[in-house]
Amino acid sequence: ELRHRASPWQRNLGYPLAMLGLLALTGISVLIVCFHVLELLLDDAAMPRGIQDASLGQVSFSIFGSFGAALQVVLIFYLMVSSVVGFYSSPLFTRLLPERQDTPLTKIIGNCVSLLVLSSALPVFSRTLGITRFDLLGDFGRFNWLGNFYIVFLYNMGFAGLTTLCLVKRVSWAVQAELIRAFGEDG
Length: 187
Hints:
Blueprint: H1 2-5, H2 8-42, H3 65-89, H4 105-128, H5 149-186
Helix pairs in contact: 2-5, 3-4
Protein backbone atom coordinates (compact mmCIF):
# COMPACT_ATOMS: atom_id res chain seq x y z
CA GLU A 1 0.00 0.00 0.00
CA LEU A 2 2.83 2.39 0.83
CA ARG A 3 4.60 1.52 -2.43
CA HIS A 4 1.54 2.43 -4.49
CA ARG A 5 1.19 5.80 -2.74
CA ALA A 6 4.88 6.62 -3.22
CA SER A 7 5.84 9.16 -5.85
CA PRO A 8 7.48 7.97 -9.08
CA TRP A 9 10.76 9.51 -7.88
CA GLN A 10 10.64 7.42 -4.73
CA ARG A 11 9.75 4.23 -6.59
CA ASN A 12 12.21 4.67 -9.45
CA LEU A 13 15.11 6.37 -7.70
CA GLY A 14 14.71 6.28 -3.92
CA TYR A 15 13.99 2.59 -3.37
CA PRO A 16 16.71 1.31 -5.75
CA LEU A 17 19.29 3.66 -4.20
CA ALA A 18 18.30 2.52 -0.71
CA MET A 19 18.62 -1.12 -1.77
CA LEU A 20 22.02 -0.47 -3.35
CA GLY A 21 23.14 1.29 -0.18
CA LEU A 22 22.02 -1.62 1.99
CA LEU A 23 23.71 -4.10 -0.33
CA ALA A 24 26.91 -2.04 -0.29
CA LEU A 25 26.95 -1.76 3.52
CA THR A 26 26.31 -5.48 3.89
CA GLY A 27 29.00 -6.31 1.35
CA ILE A 28 31.52 -4.00 2.99
CA SER A 29 30.84 -5.47 6.43
CA VAL A 30 31.27 -9.02 5.08
CA LEU A 31 34.54 -8.01 3.38
CA ILE A 32 35.85 -6.46 6.59
CA VAL A 33 34.93 -9.59 8.54
CA CYS A 34 36.63 -11.79 5.90
CA PHE A 35 39.80 -9.69 6.18
CA HIS A 36 39.56 -9.98 9.95
CA VAL A 37 39.35 -13.78 9.61
CA LEU A 38 42.55 -13.70 7.54
CA GLU A 39 44.18 -11.48 10.16
CA LEU A 40 43.13 -13.93 12.86
CA LEU A 41 44.75 -16.78 10.96
CA LEU A 42 47.99 -14.87 10.35
CA ASP A 43 48.49 -12.68 13.42
CA ASP A 44 47.65 -13.10 17.09
CA ALA A 45 47.43 -9.30 17.49
CA ALA A 46 44.10 -9.33 15.61
CA MET A 47 42.34 -10.84 18.61
CA PRO A 48 39.79 -8.39 20.08
CA ARG A 49 41.57 -7.86 23.39
CA GLY A 50 41.81 -4.46 25.06
CA ILE A 51 44.25 -1.88 23.77
CA GLN A 52 46.58 -0.89 26.59
CA ASP A 53 48.58 2.10 25.38
CA ALA A 54 46.45 3.61 22.62
CA SER A 55 45.26 7.05 23.67
CA LEU A 56 42.36 8.67 21.90
CA GLY A 57 43.60 11.07 19.22
CA GLN A 58 47.19 9.83 19.21
CA VAL A 59 46.69 6.59 17.29
CA SER A 60 44.41 6.07 14.31
CA PHE A 61 42.05 3.15 14.78
CA SER A 62 41.74 2.70 11.03
CA ILE A 63 44.35 2.08 8.38
CA PHE A 64 42.41 4.41 6.06
CA GLY A 65 42.54 7.38 8.44
CA SER A 66 39.51 9.65 8.71
CA PHE A 67 37.65 7.93 5.88
CA GLY A 68 38.10 4.55 7.56
CA ALA A 69 36.95 5.92 10.90
CA ALA A 70 33.84 7.41 9.27
CA LEU A 71 33.19 4.08 7.52
CA GLN A 72 33.48 2.29 10.87
CA VAL A 73 30.92 4.64 12.40
CA VAL A 74 28.53 4.10 9.48
CA LEU A 75 28.96 0.32 9.67
CA ILE A 76 28.40 0.26 13.42
CA PHE A 77 25.25 2.34 12.99
CA TYR A 78 24.14 -0.03 10.19
CA LEU A 79 24.76 -3.06 12.42
CA MET A 80 22.79 -1.42 15.21
CA VAL A 81 19.80 -0.68 12.99
CA SER A 82 19.89 -4.08 11.30
CA SER A 83 20.07 -5.89 14.64
CA VAL A 84 17.06 -3.96 15.96
CA VAL A 85 15.11 -4.63 12.75
CA GLY A 86 16.12 -8.29 12.85
CA PHE A 87 15.16 -8.55 16.51
CA TYR A 88 11.68 -7.16 15.96
CA SER A 89 11.25 -9.20 12.76
CA SER A 90 11.89 -12.52 14.47
CA PRO A 91 8.70 -14.50 15.14
CA LEU A 92 9.44 -14.72 18.85
CA PHE A 93 9.54 -10.95 19.39
CA THR A 94 6.97 -9.56 16.93
CA ARG A 95 4.45 -9.34 19.78
CA LEU A 96 6.83 -6.97 21.57
CA LEU A 97 6.39 -4.26 18.92
CA PRO A 98 4.77 -1.18 20.44
CA GLU A 99 1.40 -0.05 19.11
CA ARG A 100 0.66 3.61 18.70
CA GLN A 101 -1.19 4.99 21.75
CA ASP A 102 -2.03 1.46 22.93
CA THR A 103 1.16 0.02 24.45
CA PRO A 104 0.89 -1.43 27.96
CA LEU A 105 3.58 -0.59 30.51
CA THR A 106 4.92 -4.16 30.59
CA LYS A 107 5.51 -4.04 26.83
CA ILE A 108 7.28 -0.67 27.18
CA ILE A 109 9.53 -2.14 29.89
CA GLY A 110 10.19 -5.19 27.70
CA ASN A 111 11.17 -2.93 24.80
CA CYS A 112 13.48 -0.89 27.04
CA VAL A 113 15.18 -4.04 28.34
CA SER A 114 15.54 -5.46 24.83
CA LEU A 115 17.04 -2.26 23.42
CA LEU A 116 19.37 -1.97 26.43
CA VAL A 117 20.65 -5.52 25.87
CA LEU A 118 21.10 -4.91 22.13
CA SER A 119 22.94 -1.62 22.69
CA SER A 120 25.18 -3.16 25.36
CA ALA A 121 26.11 -6.02 23.04
CA LEU A 122 26.92 -3.74 20.10
CA PRO A 123 30.47 -2.73 21.19
CA VAL A 124 31.45 -6.35 21.82
CA PHE A 125 29.79 -7.42 18.59
CA SER A 126 31.56 -4.83 16.42
CA ARG A 127 34.87 -5.48 18.14
CA THR A 128 34.65 -9.26 17.84
CA LEU A 129 33.88 -8.95 14.13
CA GLY A 130 36.91 -6.72 13.63
CA ILE A 131 34.89 -3.76 12.38
CA THR A 132 36.50 -1.50 14.95
CA ARG A 133 39.31 -1.70 17.48
CA PHE A 134 38.02 1.21 19.53
CA ASP A 135 37.33 0.31 23.17
CA LEU A 136 34.33 2.66 23.63
CA LEU A 137 35.53 3.59 27.14
CA GLY A 138 33.85 0.50 28.57
CA ASP A 139 36.93 -1.69 28.26
CA PHE A 140 34.87 -4.35 26.54
CA GLY A 141 38.01 -6.03 25.25
CA ARG A 142 38.84 -7.54 28.61
CA PHE A 143 36.26 -10.33 28.47
CA ASN A 144 38.09 -13.64 28.88
CA TRP A 145 36.30 -15.34 26.00
CA LEU A 146 37.53 -12.63 23.59
CA GLY A 147 41.00 -14.13 24.00
CA ASN A 148 39.81 -17.57 22.83
CA PHE A 149 40.81 -17.94 19.18
CA TYR A 150 38.25 -20.62 18.36
CA ILE A 151 35.26 -18.68 19.68
CA VAL A 152 36.28 -15.48 17.87
CA PHE A 153 37.14 -17.35 14.67
CA LEU A 154 33.86 -19.30 14.62
CA TYR A 155 31.88 -16.15 15.44
CA ASN A 156 33.46 -14.31 12.50
CA MET A 157 33.01 -17.26 10.15
CA GLY A 158 29.38 -17.66 11.23
CA PHE A 159 28.65 -13.98 10.65
CA ALA A 160 30.34 -13.93 7.24
CA GLY A 161 28.71 -17.19 6.13
CA LEU A 162 25.19 -16.46 7.34
CA THR A 163 25.22 -12.87 6.11
CA THR A 164 26.44 -13.97 2.68
CA LEU A 165 23.80 -16.70 2.59
CA CYS A 166 21.03 -14.23 3.47
CA LEU A 167 22.33 -11.73 0.92
CA VAL A 168 22.52 -14.29 -1.87
CA LYS A 169 19.12 -15.70 -0.97
CA ARG A 170 17.48 -12.28 -0.85
CA VAL A 171 19.04 -11.08 -4.10
CA SER A 172 18.48 -14.36 -5.93
CA TRP A 173 14.82 -14.49 -4.83
CA ALA A 174 14.28 -10.94 -6.05
CA VAL A 175 15.94 -11.68 -9.40
CA GLN A 176 14.01 -14.94 -9.73
CA ALA A 177 10.70 -13.19 -8.98
CA GLU A 178 11.43 -10.48 -11.55
CA LEU A 179 12.35 -13.09 -14.17
CA ILE A 180 9.16 -15.03 -13.51
CA ARG A 181 7.15 -11.84 -13.68
CA ALA A 182 8.87 -10.75 -16.92
CA PHE A 183 8.53 -14.10 -18.64
CA GLY A 184 5.07 -14.70 -17.22
CA GLU A 185 3.72 -11.52 -18.82
CA ASP A 186 5.22 -12.36 -22.21
CA GLY A 187 4.02 -15.99 -22.26
